[in-house]
Amino acid sequence: MLETEKPLPDNVTDAIVVLCTAPDEACAQQLASLALSEKLAACVTLLPGASSMYYWEGKLEQEYEVQMILKSERSHQEALLSFLKQHHPYQTPELLVLPVHAGDKDYLSWLNASLR
User: Fold this and answer.
1) Which pick of 25, 33, 58, 60 has the fewest CB atoms within 10 Å?
2) What is the total count of domains within the chain?
């Protein structure tokens, strides 16, 4: 390590957050349960009552959906996205991956252990 380089803090991580919407709570719960049982996500937060507005095939749409927040790691990213695309009822589901730059080291340790 160069003298000007500093060691990375304990809370730096490879964790990711994946955003995905589902048409209803039953679908969101099913997707969450399957992702958890396959150890593709350590935790899934379901936020019912989200309102999404977007253009689809030239028409303005508004849907009430469940926002899913899936916590995982980069090493599981491709498998998780592939899983969600395969099992999701939407033709083009929302699949956005956000990097987690840092977090509580105890939570990140738990997240990592939960995916093994």
Assistant:
1) 58
2) 1
Residue 97 and residue 4 in contact, taking contact as beta carbons nearer than 8 Å: no
- What tokens does 22 get? 């589902």
CA distances 63 to 20, 40, 59, 72, Å, are 14, 27, 13, 27
Q: What is the pLDDT of residues 59-107, one digit of tens each?
A: 999 999 999 999 999 999 999 999 999 999 999 999 999 999 999 999 9
First and final C-alpha spacing in the chain: 31
27 carries a ligand binding annotation: no
Asked whether residue 102 is domain-assigned, the answer is yes
Name the residue range of residue 105's domain. Answer: 15-114
Domain of 69: which CATH number?
3.30.70.120
Is residue 4 a part of any domain in this protein?
no
